[in-house]
């Protein structure tokens, strides 16, 4: 662990980082590639991480969680990623869904879902992206309407979602829809818990070039009937609830990218330190050493912004966290892609072999640039919200 990281992190955070790194090392990249090859899921790693309390480290203690926040959960995902075995569903289940339910759910929703999300026995997917809306959450067309009058009337949910991770292994999906405001007639965002076996809730797996244990799905909601209590929180606080989930998503995506970048960089550094073509290891040549040093700097800078975002979010500063989380996600995505690219280039032909486990990361690393929001949309956010520049749309 670097001196800088030791200074910035508490003893508890350092201990958590070391413990998770040890867990990740026991599984590693070979475990992940085996799971992918067999078309199975990371059940063993998920179960052990849950048993050790890592999956629910951000959830309230009264519901079986660790009582921490995004600072702790991001450490867990980063270290698993640095070992070559990241758990993508950590971004979705405890970070997005667990956070939203913990902050805005009813007592009944908290009691039903949080203990299971904390101990790993329950998982929840998250559906926001739509075929025609892309990253624009304001164009979501999935709608919910009351079937009757009164607060106990059922909801009917209709729409489509795409690129929803892990629906096949999730007990429910937290769906972002829109309801009509009775006063203005405008549509406003709301979140609904949709059980996997709800009638009218269909899914189709998307054929991806990206190979991962977590599959991607298109969802079709055809008048899915939900009880009144499927709505999370207050119908009038939908936008606040939505972004309360999106900020953790960005922080955790940054952790995902930083971990992957660290894994690739460690492979490249080890190779450059030992690979000898002429009289000295190739890492002694500046053309090899300097790009690796630059990749390390970029990853460290990304972590600093991620730590800032996590701290702001955990302190309750949603506005400050929104800016920092977007910046962290952007920086980590760029650093991850560059680190993977440089790692593969350092190994040359070996970087494209299965033996070294880097070639598959060429595709996987771009996830941090594209999802859950593209880098261009983050640049829009920063130019408009931070710099105060006018919009072009």
Give a description of the structure.
With 393 residues, the protein is α/β, with parallel strands linked by helices. It is built from 12 helices and 7 strands. Strand 2 and strand 3 form a beta hairpin.
The percentage of residues in β strands lies in: 5-15%
**Helix count, per DSSP?**
12
User: What ranges have pLDDT less than 50 throughout 5 or more consecutive residues?
Assistant: none
Cα separation of the termini: 45 Å
Average pLDDT figure: 93
Order of helices and strands: HHHHHHEEEEEEEHHHHHH
DSSP strand count: 7
| Alpha-beta classification | alpha/beta
Radius of gyration: 21 Å
Short key terms for the protein model shown above:
393 residues; 12 helices; alpha/beta; 52% helix; 7-stranded mixed β-sheet; globular; 14% strand
Task: Give a topology summary.
Blueprint: H1 3-8, H2 11-38, H3 43-51, H4 70-82, H5 89-104, H6 107-119, E1 124-127, E2 143-147, E3 154-165, E4 172-180, E5 187-195, E6 201-205, E7 216-226, H7 238-274, H8 286-314, H9 318-347, H10 359-364, H11 367-370, H12 375-386
Parallel strand pairs: 1-4, 2-4
Antiparallel strand pairs: 2-3, 3-7, 4-5, 6-7
Q: Gist?
A:
This protein has helices spanning 3-8, 11-38, 43-51, 70-82, 89-104, 107-119, 238-274, 286-314, 318-347, 359-364, 367-370, 375-386; strands at 124-127, 143-147, 154-165, 172-180, 187-195, 201-205, 216-226.
